[in-house]
Amino acid sequence: MAALESLRPFSVPVTLAQAGEKTGEKAGNKVVTNHHRSTRTADDDDDGGARRILVGGPGADLRRALDASDEMSSVMAQFRSRALRSSEEHRGVDDSYARLLDDAAPDRIQRILAASWHSPNELARMLLTHFPDVSDRWLALKVLISQRETLSTEQQAALDIVLAQAEAAPPEEVRERLAGIHCAIKARLCSSEMPLACTPSMLRAAYRNFLCDEAGDIEVYQNWIGNFGFARRAQVLHFMEGALVDDMRANDPSSTAREFLLPLTRLGVLRRLRTCESTFVAQISTSPMARPFNDREQDWLHFLLAILTDPAALDGALRDVTGDAAMLQGFEAHSQLIGLLQRACSALPGEPLQSQDARDAVLDGLSALAQTAYRRESVATHADPVSRDRRSA
Question: Where are the annotated segments for Disordered (predicted)?
Fold first, then answer.
């Protein structure tokens, strides 16, 4: 106890009343503190609620998601734009190669890219050497342009000059160039169904002539037969029709609407010629009256085209088609053949394949030949009434 009493001066004596007062003070302080806290929360709700929602609430998350979506859309749009541009460039290069009718074109273009040319004249000379055709040369130039970034600054400048020169070419050259480009795909497809001797380049040249040549329609048809063969004339005509349609539908057609009138008119004439010559040739070559003289369809086609071109060539054309066989046939056979030709030529359509005067000239010539054959047959009958067949033998 003495020890405990000795410690009391150092402690603070607390009575029950004092303890109660302190407890009340603590409670009061707690109430005040809670009051300030609630007041501050209310103020925050009034003044900074919207800011807290934007900074840390669900709205902020939504806004950040929208911003991220916008950024992603922008990146994807840029990527698609680059991909589309790259795809278009590759498609343009592939299209150029598809229309280049020179199978060695890729290797030749690589040789040009690898060469050490520096001036426009050097580049133009190399293009002309490797690609003599005006359409192939233009397409090769477009491929070089697609590889522009691989060239030196000096070569790029030379390439730009050569391109400008090609773009400023005369209208006739541009027309020939575009015509060759637009018919190239059709030429590849059509030539694959023909003998190896009939190349796509030959069909391309034929289309250019068909488009621009002022030669007669029948002469153009004869050239097709001479270049591609008698059996391929229908295929060539079909190719010309398809190539002309593709050319007219192109974004940059080779001709104006006025310039297309000539090939369109020519196409109609040649389609009509194809129909009538097919009927004529089949009628003559399969007839028993013509078979002893000649049953070759191509020979009778040449006969028809000859008299359509020049009615005065009737006698010579008939001698060419009958040949030596005519000397082995009697006058009656000659009369029958001429009568067959008269009927077949009378069925020809006339305009526009031949004028009325030309038609009359052919029929008059056949009538004269028929009268001559009849007179000779009559003379031969009176001279030997027993057997004309034995005399012919």
Answer: 19-51
- Check pLDDT > 70 for residue 194: yes
Residue 354 is predicted with a pLDDT of 86
Secondary structure, 3-state, the chain: CHHHHHHHHHCCCCCHHHHHHHHHHHHHHHHHHHHHHHHHHHHHHHHCHHHHHHHHCHHHHHHHHHHHHHHHHHHHHHHHHHHHHHHHHHHHHHHHHHHCCCCCHHHHHHHHHHCCCCCHHHHHHHHHHHCCCHHHHHHHHHHHHHCHHHCCHHHHHHHHHHHHHHHCCCHHHHHHHHHHHHCHHHHHHHHCCCCCCCCHHHHHHHHHHHHHCCCCHHHHHHHHHHHHCHHHHHHHHHHHHHHHHHHHHCCCCCCCCCCCHHHHHHHHHHHHHHHHHHHHHHHHHCCCCCCCCCCCHHHHHHHHHHHHHCHHHHHHHHHHHHHHHHHHCCHHHHHHHHHHHHHHHHCCCCCCCCCHHHHHHHHHHHHHHHHHHHHHHHHHHHHCCCCHHHHHC
To the nearest whole percent, how much of the chain has pLDDT over 90?
60
Res. 9: pLDDT tops 70: no
Amino acid at 273: L
| pLDDT of res. 105 | 92
Question: Which candidate, 291, 101, 109, 281, places its Cα nearest to that of 198?
Answer: 101
Contact 144, 109 (CB under 8 A): yes
Evaluate whether 207 touches 221 at the Cβ level (below 8 Å). Answer: no
Tokens standing for residue 206: 């034929």
Span 13-40, pLDDT tens digits: 444 344 444 444 444 444 444 444 444 4
Poorest-pLDDT segment among 80-89, 289-298, 352-361: 80-89
Q: Which residues contact 163 (CB under 8 A, 6 or more apart)?
A: 141, 145
Residue 21 pLDDT: 47
The stretch 78-103 carries a mean pLDDT of 64
Please, what sign has the CA dihedral across residues 272, 273, 278, 279?
positive
pTM for this prediction: 0.72
